Amino acid sequence: MGVSPLACGAPAGKEKPFILDMAPSIAARGKIYKAARRGEKIPADWALDGEGKQTDDPNRALEGVMLPMGGPKGSALAVMMDVFSGVLSGSAFAGHVTGPYDPSKPADVGHFLVAIKPDLFMGLDDFKERMDYLYQRVVGSEKMAGVDRIYYPGEIEQITREERVKSGIPFVQAEIDALNKEADKVGVEHLVVS
User: Fold this and answer.
1) Who's near 158: CB < 8 A, 6+ residues apart?
2) Number of other CB atoms surrounding residue 128 within 10 Å
3) In angstroms, rounded to a whole number, what is the distance separating the alpha carbons of residues 50 and 46?
4) Residues 179, 173: contact at Cβ < 8 Å?
5) CATH number at residue 19
6) Is the pTM of this model over 0.90?
7) Is position 96 within any domain?
8) Domain of 53, in residue numbers
9) Which of 11, 123, 148, 181 is most buried, by CB atoms within 10 Å?
């Protein structure tokens, strides 16, 4: 099965917006590609290799499949996303989408988008006020022992983005070399590294 991502966003008033962007797998496939580029191992519960065995080798994992989060419920979520983005859209589904790094044929990727206008249900200010309250309830929840902070969905990524804007994006040399090789292919300047 594929791991079609699921994304959802909802604005708030004064608080941070709700942002969810995830694959229904234990980890995003991009993390496997990143580990392979960096020569790092991955947790053995992330993926199966081409022979159906758990592996901590990202290159072998890329020959196999990602494992679903949450067991059967995660698998059901992955199938649901495949129904919407593959079957319903008329594009590739059931694991037949060509990978992003395989230029041999079109990927045939489908998408399923839903937009909801909150003010059809209530005033927009009321909606945002309710979203602010939801944020406060989530981050203000009682914490387990050893937990310093509870993050709202998307909040860690928002904090990381702010840090990257200030400090730049951390790359290892192999990633810089790969990006510069691609830059050469299309005739653009190399990545500026400081």
Assistant:
1) 16, 19
2) 18
3) 14
4) no
5) 3.30.1370.60
6) no
7) yes
8) 6-169
9) 11
